[in-house]
Amino acid sequence: MNVILFDDPVIRQDLLPFTYTRPVSKIRVGILTIAEKWEKWLGHKPSFKTEDYLQKKFTLVTTADNTLINGAICPDQKLVDFIKTLPPGYFLVKGSLLIAARQPQGDMNDGNTITYPHDLTVIDKTWKIYNQNGSQLRIDFALITAGRVSAKIEDRHTVVYGQQNIFLEEGVTLRAAILNAENGPIYLGKNTTVQEGAMIRGAFALCEGGHVNMGAKLRGDVTVGPFSKVGGEVSASVIFGYSNKAHDGFLGCSVIGEWCNLGADSNTSNLKNNYDFVKLWSHAEKGYVNTGLQFCGLMMGDHSKCSINTMFNTGTVVDVSSNVFGEGFPKNYIPSFTWGGFEGAETYKFDKAMETVTRVLERRNIPLDTIELDILKHVFATTATLREKP
Fold this sequence. Notes:
19% helix; Spore Coat Polysaccharide Biosynthesis Protein SpsA, Chain A; UDP N-Acetylglucosamine Acyltransferase, domain 1
């Protein structure tokens, strides 16, 4: 089976800023990215059908017989069974949503349709990343740990509740922490560290190379992506990878991309004082939309940073490679490559931004290659109008 995960163009717009720099299926929700979920369920490594400017980094492989799957859809057993038996030349749909197709050469030509009769988990809005994170953590935990034995918790000063719901990969360092998995699983990935005094409630995932600082309060439905650091108080949030929220401060009902940094004592509001539904900036609608949710915090795209003591208002969107600083609350929408975030904010000059990106990547021994540079150049150019003053 040749698996291709394709970007639905409508859904991709609704998932900006995260899809500026990745295909839809590279979004992390639960322990795994959507692409990693499909790889584990199907046993085949997928390729990607995405925007032209992303295609060099996320390659497309076609054969004479291809199974194309909507990259916004999370797999489950019923859906996998349907897709495995999809005949050549057929489309699998639910209403107007194209779920999958089996087509030669990866073409999305006309064909016969089969209607999918079961429920789907579709990550088609940014807030669904954190809103679905708890359920996806549980599904991924069962998938990853099935038939396997956890490494032992050897630290006698660590307090554990619900040990049957805790799984440690090899190389975990755990010291004098509290792990409560009574209401959800806890997954500690390869070579992760949990320092003294950390309090963790499931569902929770600390992915490979991740680090929980001393005294952290992780309140459930939280994913800390690969090689990320977390401290302070975090609830119902997803950090994609290589990002730091290392210090005190609250992060709730939020999604943080890769290569981000939240300065010490930065806080996000995730509930309005009047308990009204939260409105969030939508790139698809070019304005604010009602999420229908009372709880919604910060959506921060890749390579963005904020200074110490930054206060993010309820429902704030920060796009790619912005540097947020200043007194009071920044604006609820901050376009890509913004320097400031308040009245008088300026364009973050591309060369200056790339100097920071280069230094940040070098700290992890990763070079800024021309492929990544071209992606960021494209984002800078195509978002110029969003930075224009009204």
